Amino acid sequence: MQLFTRARGPVRRGPLRRSLCAVLLAAGACLALAGCGGSSGSSGKGTLVIYSAQHPETTAAIVAAFTKQTGIKVELKNDDEDVLTAQLEQEGSRSPADIFYTENSNWLQQLDDKGMLASVPSSTLARVPSRDNAANGKWLGVSGRYSVLIYNPGKISASQLPTTAEALADPKYKGKLELAPAETDFWPIITSMIRAHGRQAALTWLEGLKANAGSDDHTPDNETLVGDVSKGDADMGLINHYYYYRIRAEMGAANFHAKLAWLAPRDPGFVEDISGAAELKSAPHPAAAQKFLAFLVSQAGQNVIAHSKSFEYPLVSGVAPNAELPATSTLKPNPITPAQIGTGIDARNLLRQAGLI
Amino acid sequence: MATLSPPRTAAWMTRRRRPAREIGLLVVAGIIALALLSPLALVALDAHSAGWGEIHRTLFRARSVMLLRHTVVLAAIVAVAAALLGTGTAWLTERAALPARRLWTVLLVLPVAVPDFVVSYAWHSFAPRIPSLLGASIVMTLGTYPLVYLPVAAALRRADPSMEEAAHSLGVGRWATLRRVTLPLVRTAIIGGCVLVVLTVISEFGAFEILGYQTFTTEIFTEFQFDARAAGSLAIPLVLLGLAVLLAEGLLPGRTVAGSAPRRAVRPVRLRRMTVPAMAGLGALVVLAVGVPVGTIVYWMAAAQQTTLPAAATLTSATLTTLSYSAAGAAAAVVLALPVALISLRRSTVPRTVLERSTYLTKALPGVVIALSLVFFATRYAFGLYETSTLLVVAYVILNFPLALVCVKASVAHVPPRLTDVGRSLGRGPVAVFVRVTLPLLAPGLLAGFCLVFLTAVTELTATLVLAPIGVQTLATQFWAFQQNIAYSAAAPYALVMLALAVIPGTLLGLWFDRERSTRA
Amino acid sequence: MSAIELHEASKAFGSTPVLERVDLDVPERSITAVLGASGSGKTTLLRLIAGFEALDGGTLTVGGRVVDDGARSVPAQHRGVGYVPQEGALFPHLTVRGNVGFGLSRGERGRVSDLLDLVGLGELARRYPHQLSGGQQQRVALARALAIGPAVVLLDEPFSALDASLRSELRRDVARILSETATTTVLVTHDQGEALAMADQIALLNDGTVIAAGAPRRLYQDPPGLAAAASIGEFNLLAAQVDGATARTALGEISIVGPGASAGPGDDGLGGSCQVMLRPEQLELRLVAGSADTAAEVLEVQYLGHDALARLRVRGDGTPVLLARIPGELSLEPGQSVWIAVTGAGRAWPATAAS
Known about the structure:
The complex is a heterotrimer of chains A (357), B (521) and C (355). Chain A is α/β, with parallel strands linked by helices.
């Protein structure tokens, strides 16, 4: 009987099975690790839980200073403010969060409308101008930012720029404008325009803006808008001032080709946005939460904000903003208050009607 | 016929067992499917509380029609492009005499590992004036073609070359053979991959935000800013789209026969003059899909104006966290995919197919919807789990289950029932046969599923932001945090580590095919 | 004592009946071949005995134990029935040694070497299935099935995938191994030659029923009915008039046996007509006319090496084409005239009773 064999080369299956075993073992180990690694929902005593939609670097600096001063440990959750608001609403009274710190005040307003916020101690509220806080004292203003025109001087000269927000809708600016209508900082401008000119005029204005922005159906975010203006892909846009400074700092002044132009004093488009914080009614650590809110508007806390790379304006008087920024006294924004800005629902509806979002 | 004494009845006669074992499997698979579909419950609840009027207004305005058109057009374009690209590259690496085949196999799989937000940012800086549809198509095609490449390459490897040889002997030319013989053989694989591609496009958000391409999903995110519940109801068209895709796939005729392994190794097609163009084409593809994002990241790091480099400690802890969560999610996804893949093995009835297909549905939903649905369930019914790593791992499983299922199913189809029959005839019970015969044969598919889910989980962002234990960072969330600060140079190292992490399973995945010496079953 | 008894076994898949009231007795230590065309239900029969399917009706007894009575059944892993499917079905992830030892407990693993020696593959213990040829794989599969010391071994078309030359060699080896181990074997095949060569008993399966069972020689030479005759070997069928122990056919007077024969004309009450079967080797061809020979014309000759099959038509008659087996050296051309002489007796059945 001839026994012939056909050699087929080294068998590979062994190593494959070994790697499978190794991988599964590793996965099992990781599961175990992950199980002990992640902290459970309830934080330990004396730990403050903050849901922050403010820029992470600034918040980290504030938190570090706070812990250093008070010894209270902080756990931070960073995410977009719309997602955080939705999450807080879903969590309801079982939320592990103590503080909600946002970039725009309308989210705090939305939570307050649902009765989810606790009152801020009046001593804390008193540190900032009362118009910058919630009317009913449920949330605290911490820092401010202003809406401003950003333009590329190579594409459009300063003299050609509109001085009012209303003029932005002028057909002579067709194709020169870029909008970021999905960004929350756009809404206060719209609310202000509604307040100044009435709903119908505001709608017409939005439609004019849409025409000027081109038919591309673009809804970029603010960072992209600034980048596009700097590169010259768009001539101008409306943003909150700090984006300009931050991106310029990151890219380097030599590579950054955009400039700022403030709108006319008290123009409806010249709006101050408030970034604020609030304690949740369901906060597990109310004492620590109130200490944090106090810290935010203390000299130390405001100094952290002023010296950070956030380029926002501290609201407490006597604290100077970042040296690169124009002094607060030189700015003359529209007197619209956060309370009047509200939850922004009118702005949303108008944007929808105009077909911008 | 007469026996000398009455036959003794066997001591352990059992009730007819035929349906019993299968019922256990069906129940397990059913529970898994229900768990996977649970986010839809939240979508339904949101819709209910938003009220029909609100939904009507949101869904049926002119903009919605435009969005739907955008989503469908993009999905169609990307599906076709990814199918062409995936099939073409699979043919090149499996059937052609390509130099450095193994290297190409690994490189071609890598795009799965590149975070989509990095890709679109890279493309936006690369070609900012690109029309948004073109940009979105390019980005998505480059990112999803591996989902077609993988199953098609596996199918080609198993396909019997004798059919193509028969065609040649009948005088059918090379291209015609490709079209009329080879492609039909791998049709199921192509279509399966395309289903995944379409679902991925439908649920994609991060890539489009930067490119400015409006789809239903980007709209959900915009809508989130106004009314989370209306946003939830916007997910309904996504689910319906997903259903339509799955139904269409189910209706398509023809299943390839679970191939018996080829008797001979395939003789690779010599490319001759086409070798250089083929290599150049593949090279261009890899450069576009992987090189551009990597190059952008490196450029960011080099162009750093502010050197806020991350501390080694944060980078290490984020890496370890990412590793452990992703591995846990991948392992869980693969283990859970097994029963679901097995239910259609012996008998393929309509209810079983529906059960199996239903698990694909949540892939049409964006990550944030799934994350919030888990918040909903956890805060109400399982608070101990809330903001623990377990819940995040569950999210990873729900998000990526179809990827694991596709890989495991591909392997399951090649375990002939004959082998389990023989195992039983040799005296081993069903469990022993499963462990000693079925599992080892499934090993390559399990491994591939693990790698694919791992790769996707490493770059997962939106669900992680919502569900991760407070204060715990993964590479993706760290990247995002720095990017929010516009500190791209600081964000870059995290992206690079994500890519580095992904190279290992990417390589394993690529080698899965190479190692798969066709076995004679 | 029968190792396997099937009594009125029935099985249907959905509404399609596959086996209907099958009776089969497999004696111990013998090889029974189940012979039938594709679709006759052979594999189902095997799977029923193995325990992968359950009977719808009837009983199945293995080794004296009732393992399936139509309502309850013993699962396959408890039956002690070895199963070798088509193409071996070796576990591709295990070596030869691993395959053969699969059904053995740790203590019994020593048997593997003996079994491999038995099938002649001693030095291939470390190889993987894909490194073996088809014949070697079949041997390993057999060794694997024998390893657990089964009461019965079932082989499903075990040699169909092999080359012809390999087949006969492997057949002999397998028959030897099975008799050496005194194993009861049920072998399913569609190859008549294989069944005739290997089996102690052949069961003819046609459309879900066993139409005949018996020793190969008897079935071939003395088939119980026409269908049985048609299932084994070539045959010629002639219409005839019965006249006692002879019949008048187109080939002249032939002596007959079987149910068609009777003592005298008209005795059976059927008017004396019957059908007579003659095997091809019973037709002798001569180039020169003999006394009782019939003239015929050669239509074609199928040369088989060891002999040849000639197709003939009787001159001037409407009889169907006849098959004659002739020695290989005899070279005939189409159109050539030959004379047919009949040797031996023909098997006769009444004309109306065809089976």
